[in-house]
Amino acid sequence: MKIVFFSISFFILVIGICGSPLLTRLYFIHGGKRLWFSSFLQTGAFPIILIPLLVAYTRRLHKSTGTKLFYMNPRVLAAASVIGILSGFCSYLYVYGFSLLPVSTASLILASQLVFTAVFAFLLVKQKFTAYSVNAVVLLTLASAVLAMHTSSDRPAGESSKAYILGFVMTLGAAVMFGLLMPLVELTYKLANQTVTFTLVLEMQLVIGFFATAFCTVGMVINNDFQAIAREARSYELGETNYYIVVVWLAILCQLYSFGVLGIIFSSSSLVSGIVVAALLPATELLAVIVYHEKFQVEKGVSLFLSMWGFISYFYGEFKYNNSNSNDNSDNEQKTELDLVAP
């Protein structure tokens, strides 16, 4: 069952991680300027989760009477609330970086989240590392480092060095926060004191989305973003209608991204989720080169190769490990049967 859920989550994550950065950048390069509003869009579509939750609740109601509306217990609710607030702050750092950097550059910086995910996973959930997982972390980190050595050539025309450095720092801060959030979600699953089900994953995403959106809403109120949205839409370079199309689809794709991450953590671990995200970021870079005609230097090609190598290395190691365990269990069962029939 978890393999099926992992596959679905992976597919959803691919759509979210490839589409949301491109639309975030599209919002900014054609006249969007509201940082808190764009942060709000990263989690603002969380009510979509109510649809599958309603289906799950209806199914539970048919099976038994007295079914609770929410499956999660108070401990998980409190943890998801804190994660949600941190996620809102992470969204702000993320969009701030994307407002100043090309998509390809910002994506490669975000790939460094794998290092932070590995460190926090080791500290918080006692993540065990194999030679293959270490190799994957090293290769994906090198993939980011190769590009980081030549990012200055990607600085947008007319942007100051100070603004570019600020964007770099903000995006790196988002990578650190994202690297912390994934192990925190896994830790919440481990300490939930209840069975972790698909319904619990959905409820956690709903709560995380609500508190992250609430955090960004406060920023919007302080920054007077609500009054500025209609004015910004009218002056948007692609037209007012396209402005609303961009922001609506941005919110939907970001929600798919979040669901994909939580789903992979549920069906595997935070480290696997970090590896998948890091491995998919080069695809975003390639799309940015195609869509926005960003430069594709040799370094980006090397980065893509290293990322794919790391991704394949990890999952080959997992396959080999699981296959070995399966054979060991089969041998143990056969040995037990022989012992039972022995005179």
Automatic annotation (TrEMBL):
Q: Which UniProt keywords apply?
A: Membrane, Transmembrane, Transmembrane helix, Transport
Specify the superkingdom: Eukaryota
For this chain, the family text in UniProt reads: Belongs to the purine permeases (TC 2.A.7.14) family.
Report the source organism. Castilleja foliolosa
InterPro entries in alphabetical order = EmrE-like, PUP_plant
Membrane topology of this protein: Multi-pass membrane protein
Enumerate the transmembrane spans: 6-28, 35-56, 76-95, 107-125, 131-151, 163-184, 204-222, 243-265, 271-292, 301-317
Q: Which residues are the signal sequence here?
A: none
GO terms for cellular component:
membrane
Q: Give the coiled coil ranges.
A: none
Compartment(s):
Membrane
Name this polypeptide is given = Probable purine permease
Any single GO molecular-function term of the entry would be: purine nucleoside transmembrane transporter activity
- Cited Pfam families: PUNUT
